[in-house]
């Protein structure tokens, strides 16, 4: 989380280049949620991109983030998101507010006032021993919690290039992996290591039987199973997939908090052109084009575009009435 609090962090670049979650994810969460649809709270909201789609189902949106920079971006992004919607008349949300604060200390939010609590690509920063009691406090009876995240990106038509796609976005990379802060491996493993709460003297109404995990198959901790891309397994539907230009991939790699930490340790490397990401993406592009010449499907895309996917994982639990 420290990288996002750094004043030099590129918040606008983060907002522009991070992938958006698919409708399937929101449908999964809403189908799981059995409570009212008054207020949703998104923890670690960043620029709010994961929160806004709930505006079609909930009347009040709240985003919380410890970074002042992210909160400033969220307020601007909310207005831009509303203007960009084609069916504005279907938006249910009457308001959206963004507050600076940690998930472990939700001061200012009343007891049992929230229907749905979410966290997108953020739970790996949380302290489970502190966040669950606070979430329990503000969650209404029959309310739900949904934490989700995505692992390291890959190219569905080019599974042999999975290692190259992990270069700047995985804690397992031999060069850049050391620059990821603790917790990265947890989200790469689709939150499998993040525990569900248990009932105790201060939390007596968790519906333990409702605890659910849905995720993309992993071949090993933190590594997406790509057997489906070769027809050796059923299609993995719980994923994000987008057509991206190689310039987009370049921009996405630059949202890596490991890169931010690398540049702090090696300031002489920042500002070089072409820099290490430029060189890496160009090699990646050349490898993709070479595989297409060898028969890999191009899906009708030109030489500057390719399909990119991210494995998704969500964990959900309800509070009893």
UniProtKB/TrEMBL annotation:
Boundaries of every Methyltransferase type domain copy: 41-147
Transmembrane segments: none
Keywords on record: Methyltransferase, Transferase
Domain of life: Eukaryota
Keyword Methyltransferase: yes
InterPro entries cross-referenced by the UniProt entry: Diverse_substrate_MTase, Methyltransf_11, SAM-dependent_MTases_sf
GO biological process: methylation
CDD domains: AdoMet_MTases (cd02440)
Gene Ontology MF: a single term: S-adenosylmethionine-dependent methyltransferase activity
Family note: Belongs to the methyltransferase superfamily.
Protein's name according to its UniProt entry: S-adenosyl-L-methionine-dependent methyltransferase
């Amino acid at each position: 989380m420290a990288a996002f609090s750094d004043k030099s962090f590129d918040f606008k670049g983060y907002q522009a280049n991070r992938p958006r979650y698919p409708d399937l994810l929101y449908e999964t969460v809403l189908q799981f949620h059995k409570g009212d649809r008054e207020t949703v709270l998104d923890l670690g909201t960043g620029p709010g991109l994961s929160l806004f789609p709930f505006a079609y189902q909930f009347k009040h949106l709240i985003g919380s983030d410890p970074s002042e920079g992210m909160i400033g971006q969220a307020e601007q992004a909310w207005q831009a998101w509303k203007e960009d919607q084609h069916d504005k008349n279907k938006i249910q949300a009457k308001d959206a507010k963004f507050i600076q604060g940690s998930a472990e200390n939700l001061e200012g939010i009343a007891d049992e006032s929230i229907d749905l609590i979410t966290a997108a690509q953020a739970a790996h920063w949380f302290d489970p021993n502190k966040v669950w009691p606070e979430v329990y406090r503000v969650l209404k009876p029959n309310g739900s919690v949904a934490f989700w995240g995505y692992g390291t990106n890959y190219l569905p038509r080019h599974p042999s290039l999975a290692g190259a796609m992990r270069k700047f976005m995985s804690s397992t990379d031999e060069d850049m992996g050391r620059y990821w802060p603790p917790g990265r491996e947890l989200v790469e493993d689709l939150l499998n290591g993040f525990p569900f709460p248990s009932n105790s003297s201060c939390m007596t109404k968790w519906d333990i039987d409702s605890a659910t995990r849905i995720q993309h198959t992993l071949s090993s901790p933190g590594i997406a199973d790509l057997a489906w891309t070769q027809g050796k397994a059923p299609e993995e539907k719980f994923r994000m997939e987008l057509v991206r230009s190689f310039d987009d991939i370049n921009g996405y790699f630059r949202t890596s908090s490991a890169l931010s930490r690398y540049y702090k340790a090696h300031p002489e490397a920042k500002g070089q052109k072409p820099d290490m990401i430029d060189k890496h993406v160009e090699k990646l592009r050349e490898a993709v084009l070479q595989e297409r010449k060898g028969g890999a499907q191009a899906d009708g895309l030109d030489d500057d575009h390719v399909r990119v996917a991210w494995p998704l994982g969500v964990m959900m639990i309800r509070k009893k009435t």
